[in-house]
Amino acid sequence: MNLLQEVFFTFFLAVIVYFIFEWITRDRVNKIINKIPGPIRVPIIGTTYRLFLFPKEELFKRAKVHLRNYGPIIRTWLGSTPVVHLLEPKDIELILNNSVQITKSSMYDSVRPWLGDGLLTSTGKKWFTHRKLITPTFHFTILENFMEIFVEKSKLLVTNLQNKTITEVFDLYPHITNCTLDIICETAMGIQINAMSDPNNEYVKNVSHITKETVDRLMKPWLHPDFIYYKTNQGKRYKKYLSNLHDFTTKVIKERKEKLITKSKTDQTNESNSSEPDVIGGKVRKAFLDLLLESPINLTDMELREEVDTFMFEGHDTTTAGICWSLFLLGNHPDIQEEVFREITTVFEESNDGETLTINDLGKLKLLERCVKEALRLFPSVPTIGRKLTNDVKLEKYLLPAECTINLQIFLVHHDEKIYPHPEKFDPDRFLPHNIKNRHPYAYIPFSAGPRNCIGQKFAMYEEKTILAYILKHYKVTAIESQETVKPMMELILRPKNGLLVKLESRKS
Ligand code: HEM
Predict the structure, then answer these.
(1) Relative to the CA of 131, which ligand 1 atom is closest?
(2) Residue whose CA lies nearest to ligand 1 atom number 6
(3) Which residue in 101, 309, 316, 465 could disulfide with 180, CB within 3.0 to 4.6 Å?
(4) In the structure, which protein residues have their CB atom closer than 6 angstroms to any atom of ligand 1?
(5) How far is the CA of 4 from the centre of ligand 1 (A)?
């Protein structure tokens, strides 16, 4: 046989083996799944050909066409794995509100090398124990302490933007990213990386590289198998960034552990009160990591690293996107921005010193909060979440078989015109109490819902409102792109393809 014949023969054999495997192992699943409407399935690649038919920024538009064509439940095939997409709040509730269906789908494998088995990716007993352990670290009094950090970093951000002229068009996105990175490093690890003043900081660069490489790999199915990926230059680069990030977190954990031991020895010698708070970053405050180190369950160094890395990942990209989409929408709706500005000015005037917001002050920013919520409806930072079913689930019309992958389409629920009339319209009043009253509780789920909802949602809302209040107090924001031209892209989280292009006008002049 010549080489061509060998290749052809191998391919032919692979196709035969594939079909036999499918027939034997997937017969039941296939029969059940095929009752659900969806696009035509092609052997081996399933329905993934659709990913290649349209550019990345078209995917959401396409998803809406799917919705119209196939209805509120759609099945696709990721190669030979069936994926069912749910778009109805009542169906989504059946999965999210089910304490058994807590296993994440293979979509999360892309972040596993970085996050390991942290809270986002783990399942079963480990997830349950860690969730119980970590929940108190997001208590109100702890978040109240973090408020100082939110304010300090917001003030610095506003100062850094002072050199922008009224006519200059620039991308605000990286400035917000650096601000939220500074905040999460100090709140999660108790360290200052000063990303805003030093964007070339090694840790900042590694976080940005790793996010880019992860997204790139996700979009290239042929790079998914580890044995291929780590042989490519891209895979080798990824490994390097990963080891830098892990080394950094490991070092921080080691140092904080040593500090804790020294402190406990000093306390014993001085017979001082052990409830005395630690000194972190020059200020009396505890970081998430300190709270984990003090917990009654001894986490291993690896477990500590997984949880800290998870906070780092979940806790800055998501809020950055939320803040940027809010500014984008307010920058397109100057009338609403003026109302928000008036509300902010009043709250600042009534605050303790006229320039430092407290958590209580944030509670008074009602319109701003509705804007943030409406931005998270139109552009949810996490537009899709996935589960792998551990047993069959019966929906009204269809049965979802065990082992099946479920995609809960947050973005599409939020854009359903039956739930939100004129869904593309930015209308913060959708979140007035009388308008929320009659909506299904699972019709608005930017932070997911049920036992695996976002543990950091209060942190996120406080942080977003603080940063937005400071920016909008000092600057009038004009967005350059419109809702019609902006291209939301799914890159782990939903972000605008061209960043956040704006012009700023100082409110002082
Ligand atoms: C606007 C900001 C945020 C949004 C939209 C958001 C959204 C979400 C969503 C949708 C989930 C569920 C993921 C899933 O089921 O696969 C989630 C989980 C999670 N989020 Fe957030 N998040 C935000 C901010 C944060 C922040 C600031 C933190 C930490 C400081 C955080 C930490 C987590 C963690 C640890 C989980 C996993 C929880 C578990 O499975 O028990 N998030 N988030």
Answers:
(1) 41
(2) 447
(3) 316
(4) 104, 119-120, 131, 310-311, 314-315, 318-319, 322, 381-382, 385, 446-448, 452, 454-456, 459-460
(5) 50
Over residues 394-444, the pLDDT tens digits come to 999 999 999 899 999 999 999 999 999 999 999 999 999 999 999 999 999
Whether the CB-CB separation of 104 and 118 falls below 8 Å is answered with no
User: What digits encode the pLDDT tens for the residues 453-496?
Assistant: 999 999 999 999 999 999 999 999 999 999 999 999 887 899 99
Instruction: State the distance from the centre of ligand 1 to the C-alpha of 454, rounded, in angstroms.
Output: 4
Distance 314 CA to ligand 1 centre (A): 6
200, exposed or middle or buried, with CB in 10 Å at 0-12, 13-18, 19+?
A: exposed
As a CATH number, domain 47-506 is 1.10.630.10
CB of 144 within 8 A of CB of 458? no
Measured torsion, CA atoms of residues 223, 227, 229, 235, in degrees rounded to the nearest 10:
170
- Give the residue, out of 454, 494, 495, with the most ligand 1 atoms within 8 A of its beta carbon, to mutate for a pocket test: 454
Instruction: Tell me how far the alpha carbon of residue 443 lies from the centroid of ligand 1, in angstroms.
Output: 18
- Measured CA to CA in angstroms, residue 420 lies from 66, 177, 389, 439, 494 at distances of 19, 30, 29, 9, 20
Q: What is the pLDDT of residues 339-392, one digit of tens each?
A: 999 999 999 999 988 899 999 999 999 999 999 999 999 999 999 999 999 999
Name the band, by pLDDT with cuts 50, 70 and 90, for residue 280.
Answer: very low
Region class of 118: left (phi > 0), else alpha (psi between -120 and 50), else beta: beta
**Average pLDDT of the residues in 316-334:** 97
Describe the chain by its helix, strand, coil percentages, rounded to 5. 55, 10, 30
Mean pLDDT of all residues belonging to the chain: 89
Structure letter (DSSP) for residue 230: T
Q: Which long-range contacts (CB under 8 A, 24 or more apart) does 432-437 make?
A: 432/370
Structure tokens of 229?
């990926």
**For ligand 1, mutation pick of 112, 138, 153, 314 (most atoms within 8 Å of CB):** 314
Radius of gyration of the chain (CA): 24
How many angstroms is it from 313 CA to the middle of ligand 1? 9
Mean pLDDT of 244-254: 94
Asked if 444 contacts 408 with a C-beta cutoff of 8 angstroms, the reply is no
Please, what's the b/e burial string for 351-381 (b: 16 or more CB within 10 A of its CB; e: otherwise)?
eeeeeebebebbeebebbbbbbbbbbbbbbb
Please report the sign of the dihedral spanned by the C-alpha atoms of residue 319, residue 500, residue 446, residue 390. negative
Return the percentage of the chain with pLDDT > 70, whole number: 89
